[in-house]
Amino acid sequence: MIRRPRVVFWDNLPSPYGVEQYNLLADRARLDLRVWFNARTESDRSWTVDESTWRFPAEYISNPGCSLNELRRFSERCRAFQPDVLVSPYGDLGYAAGYLVTRALGIKTVLVVQRTFDAWVRRAWWKERAKQVLFRSAEAAQVPGPDGDAYARRYGFPAERIFPVTLTTNVGQYARPLSPDERREHRARLGVEGCVFLYAGRLWKPKGLVYLIEAFRQARTVNAAMSLLIIGDGVDEGELRAAAEGIPGITFSPFVQAPDLYAYYAASDVFVFPTLGDPHGQVIEEAHAAGLPVIATSAIGDVHRRVADGVMGYVVPPGDAAALAKRMLELAADPARRRAMGECGAVRARAWDHDAYAAEMETLVDACLAAGPRANMSARVVAAAGRVALYVAAPSRGALHREFP
Asked: Which of 311, 308, 305, 261 is nearest to 287 (CA)?
């Protein structure tokens, strides 16, 4: 019997779409997978976590970067499962510490690489240098598309070690229209009318919501037959509500769990994603699956591949309320264009269902296993640093010295 590849997915949180993807990988049974989560939730994440729905083995792990004891525990966890491949982000101290361990133990590592934007990430010379070392030493990069590919190459991944894995959505969960009566009743309950623009996500200023509120104010002075529905919660909710005060047509709704969100998409006409610098933004796929045109900013990973400008919606500059208002007015005045754009987006979304993610991830694992280890200076330095870290953290240094002579 052929042994299935042992793969660990190390993730930050059990997000709804992440859990769906891991469930599908487990169902396909090509990989012997484990999932390690850093935490069950965070203060600004309100989605429901129900471990009883998980069809994959998972556990919550401690941060290996917080102490030598936790670093040792992480190494023991790696030794216990003996993964062939570990798939991991890289952007904080905990992931970096874990990466040293995997390098020291000879575990092939895939880094999840997405384009980042200055509006969200504070640049520093040492971060830039660290990325160059990491990207020159890992076996492979998992990227969502061309932007991630270019980013991985920029910091040292060769083309043959970069693999696209589509970040997908559960299309069937959002492609659920309401009947005309249901739609009318739901809009009445929400207090929205006319052309309804929808935002769903964190209420956090880097998402560009201040500009969205200003754009809506400008647009509504020209066309009063429109509404803005803002769904979610977050640290800046109070400030954003204050910014919207006195502007007619704006409705705030509490966070909505993923299984119930389809009705809000179906009650709306256009999805707006005004972010100032989002690596991906899964809500674009959700909105397209629901058949909505999308107005998004150019500060989103692979946005022109995902929102064909003028075909599936519009792409506007980040932080430009006037440009956003102009596109909102155009779509508010043209229901036929809204429908045509929504239909084009829905076609794309159907090709981005979770089956695409699972197949591409399995291809990545096979390619990573077939590829030889990195043998350059960065790879040697990182492996040596990992061995030193494990030596310092080991309760019995003599035993570790025998394991890593």
From this structure: 261
Of the candidates 232, 239, 219, 243, the one whose C-alpha atom is nearest the C-alpha of residue 273 is 232
Asked if residues 134 and 386 have their Cβ atoms less than 8 Å apart, the reply is no
Residue 20's contacts (CB-CB under 8 Å, 6 or more residues apart) are 170, 354
For residue range 275-314, list pLDDT tens digits in order.
Answer: 999 999 999 999 999 999 999 999 999 999 999 999 999 9
Residue 184, SS3 per DSSP: helix
Query: Which stretches of 223-320 are DSSP H helices?
Result: 237-244, 258-266, 283-289, 303-306
Domains in the chain: ranges and CATH: 6-168+354-403 (3.40.50.2000), 171-351 (3.40.50.2000)
* CB-count burial class (<10 Å; 0-12, 13-18, 19+) for 189: exposed
Q: Quick one: average pLDDT of 83-111?
A: 96
Render 79-115 in DSSP notation, one character per residue.
HHH--SEEEE--SSHHHHHHHHHHHHHT-EEEEE---
Mark out the alpha helices in 8-90 (DSSP H runs): 16-28, 68-81
What pLDDT does 1 receive? Answer: 66
